[in-house]
């Protein structure tokens, strides 16, 4: 991945209150301040997984959460930029100018924290759509199905991604709703309409299975993880595919089916 180094500008407005050092408390502050202005932010990434998954604190799955990742169904990027400036964050001006229609980046220098906000959709290796209806399912995070997909869509998956996926799968069964359940029909339908997403998620199922062998999980936990990965694999295979999926399937791996997003760091 390439590093994108660009100038950042300081917020022209004073923050309403100091940025909090605790990542989860600061995430809740941002969500609340956004809601007060008619904007919707929902947390994703590792911290969102930890909020739902006690297993994220397991001795072999625990990790640090240095940055914050959010999604917004609201496409008014200028309002999000104004909010973040008011709350004391520095924008990555170059990156936001080039990518603001779908992604915004901000910094908290005092706590060495980066804040990513995906606008209107999640777009990294693959695109995962957002809807206002799905955003209402949880007060603080994306629904579990989307949390799982945003991790499973990573082509160059690293160990922290695997740890997050193990924790999420250990603590949540697959089902047909979203109440502390991974909505399998919704997840499988998104994959059944997008061959590239389906392909990467299918590969990720095996990656998690292989990597998890290195973790010293208790026998019952290991069995639960393997069983749930098998449930996901079966759903990916059995869910009826769209015409778009079938057309792309005819091309297969001869054409690259994913993007490798730029790794953005503060300059």
Itemize the secondary structure elements and their pairings.
Blueprint: E1 3-4, H1 23-36, E2 42-44, H2 46-52, E3 68-72, H3 77-86, E4 90-91, H4 93-99, E5 103-108, E6 113-119, E7 121-123, E8 127-129, H5 132-135, H6 144-152, H7 159-171, E9 174-175, E10 182-183, H8 184-192, H9 195-212, H10 219-238, H11 243-249, E11 263-264
Parallel strand pairs: 1-11, 3-6, 9-10
Antiparallel strand pairs: 2-3, 4-5, 5-6, 7-8
Helix pairs in contact: 2-7, 6-7, 7-9, 8-9, 9-10
Keywords:
alpha/beta; five-stranded mixed beta sheet; 11 helices; disordered N terminus
Largest sheet: 5 strands, mixed
Share of helical residues: 40-55%
Q: Which structural class best describes the helix and strand composition?
A: alpha/beta
Main sheet: strand order: 2-3-6-5-4
Number of helices: 11
Low-confidence stretches: 1-14
Number of strands: 11
Provide the gyration radius in Å: 19 Å
The count of domains is 1
Task: Give the overall shape, derived from the CA principal axes.
Answer: globular
Describe the structure.
The protein is globular, with a radius of gyration of 19 Å. The protein contains 11 helices and 11 strands. With 267 residues, it is an alpha/beta fold. β5 and β6 form a beta hairpin. It has a 5-stranded mixed sheet. The chain has one domain.
